[in-house]
Amino acid sequence: MDLLAHALKLLELKSISEEGDEELVNYLIPLFEQIGARLVLQQVPHSMGDHAKRQYNLIGILGDDLVDSRTKKGLLLTSHVDTASPGNAADWNKLGGNPWAPALLEGGVYGLGAASGKLDFLCKLIAGATYAKHGLKQPIYIVATCGGESPLAGCKYLIQSGAVNPKYVLVGAPTGLNIVNAQKVQMSFAIRISFVAVERDAQEFNAKIFVSSRSKSCHVAHPKAEKNALSNVLFFLDQLRASPIQHKLFSLHGASSLNKTPDNASAGVVVPSKDLDAVRDRFRSISSNHRDCFFEMRLGGTGDRGIRLLPAEVAQAVVAIREELDQLNGDLASHHEEGFDPPRSKITFSGVSQGRDCLDLLLHFHLVPEFGGADIKKELEADLKARLAKIVHNYRTISIDCRRLISTPKFYTDPKSTFVQTLCADLASSGVEPIVRSSNNCSEAAYFSERGYETVAFGAGQDEDNMNCPNEQVRLDDLHASIRFYERAIEAFCVRGI
């Protein structure tokens, strides 16, 4: 198979989590057929209103495909092939503002999904093709899953279906060609503030102010993920609230894909026209002292019909929620575990979207393994909901609902195990220094580890400042190194049958 040609084609195909991966899976099917793999196509059912029904897992099997639920055997090579949304197209300046126009530039393959799953899966498929005609003592499972960037998590459906029962699992993730044997535990929550916005007459508040911010998006597990466009806009509102300028909030937006920080956010407020000069002065002062926030301001009038304002308690509740999260972050910071960056648990507030009578907030816990046990996670969830209940108790016109979207299990594999030591030897023979480490990012590895499969995460490309970022890229040489590594892993576990 031509690695570069197929890589560029895969990156052209859209497979954003919410839109489904059918087109990409249809491209992969003939590639599996060329190497003689037995195929199983799973349509992954779900009831999420914002996701298309075209969600598929594609399973290719080489060797003995008899799956016995009592006996784990063979090697599973898996990667999710969906992506987060590209965000602001203009930020993809390496590709001329088009994230679906991939290119080989300066030895790197650029495009949406280059590091986060698509090309890692291609490496696995090419490595499997090398051994398609060999006598295999143990089967090879090569699986493309959906929903890796959403609550769908097609890998969970794969596990529950019983279609594969491997002894060893290699999960694709951008690890910089390191073997990752432990990851933080992720919990994500959707918080809805419901209200009835009946106030339409702004009275003397007859001037609209729109303030927006831009930032480079990144993965929500990034060490600096809390510094994003939404946090910038909320900071501006804090500064405005601390001033003598009277204002009322009528809009607040700043959201992206589940595992991605927003690259654009905005807030709309109304002020008395007599305070416009004061607002301009305040804006100039804040924006000049915080140029990295890329603040912009637009002015407008409310018109003859007035404006639909958010109840004052909504803005107060958002402030109160952020204060409670700061306190909870402080509580979590007391425990450190080296190997992670930062070496502690943290909470990231990453999204706000506004409906007709609601604000939807999105937040993430990324917990060090010590706080990743089932009982502790239940305590943290109960603590969060108790804090929200305390907030809503102080208000009469709003309600607050909290719903868990994701809760990954703990993931840890003994670095001294035969599995990891064999992989280290395979990596060294591929010309790459074998490094075993922990990672901030959560992956499907946690779900396989929970079911007792010996699992690690591995892949070409860097995670920080690359995964779920504009100009996502992976070095072509690293893709070739990945193929060599996967070939040696297949030879060790499926040909020799370790």
Describe the structure.
The chain is α+β, with helices and mostly antiparallel strands and 498 residues long. Among the domains are: 3-177 and 459-495, Aminopeptidase (3-Layer(aba) Sandwich); 200-309, 2-Layer Sandwich (Alpha-Beta Plaits). It contains eleven helices and 20 strands. Strands 1-2-6-3-7-19 form a six-stranded mixed β-sheet, sandwiched between helices. The chain starts with a helix and ends with a helix. The mean pLDDT is 93.
Give a short overview.
By secondary structure, this protein is an alpha+beta fold.
Keywords for this entry:
Aminopeptidase, 11 helices, six-stranded mixed sheet, four-stranded antiparallel sheet, alpha+beta, 20 strands, elongated, Alpha-Beta Plaits, 498 residues
Low-confidence stretches: none
Q: For this structure, what is the CATH homologous superfamily of the domain at 3-177 and 459-495?
A: Zn peptidases
How many beta-strand elements? 20
CATH topological fold name of the domain at 3-177 and 459-495? Aminopeptidase
- The mean pLDDT is 93
**Secondary structure: helix percent:** 25-40%
Distance linking N and C termini: 28 Å
Strand order of the largest sheet: 1-2-6-3-7-19
Shape: elongated
Q: What structural category do the secondary elements indicate?
A: alpha+beta
- State the name of the first-level CATH class of the domain at 3-177 and 459-495: Alpha Beta
CATH architecture of the domain at 3-177 and 459-495: 3-Layer(aba) Sandwich
Q: Which range does the strand content fall in?
A: 15-25%
Radius of gyration in whole Å, from Cα? 24 Å
Sheet with the most strands, sense and barrel status: 6 strands, mixed
In DSSP terms (H or I, runs of 4 or more residues), the helix count works out at 11
